[in-house]
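mind reviewing this stuff:

——
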Amino acid sequence: SVPLPSNGQSDSWQAKLILPSDRTNLLWPGSSSNSSANWDGGTVTFKVRWYAKTGAAANAGVAWTLKATSYGDTQVLDSVFGTGVTRTHEPASPANDAHYQTAASSALTIAGAGAGEFVDWVITRTVSDAADDWAADVELIEVEITYGIATSLSV
């Protein structure tokens, strides 16, 4: 069997992307993945790593919203996405040409969640959020998903 992480409670998977965004092109193409077979089917949290070449200013921040849906075998692929969760990030010392990482989000419910199922993810830069006042384009680098573990896997 594969051992549980040291805390026995969670694990993570990551999607590494480098996707440019401007303040008018806010939705990135969806990303899909198979969920872990030992995922407990519960809520997940996420962190976003992002890059800004320009636009740094005191008290400037970015807002990211992630939503997801899960598909099982023979399930119709027009399922509704779960309610998105928004995570804002205002760097303590904003600088141009810098890499940033948010803290973990609040709990995100994946619509139709089931362990081992196919998951579609959609992330947006949410400029309508009052906390998103970074005046320039940014690039999404990576989304890290953390999820609860039900059991260890047998191999």
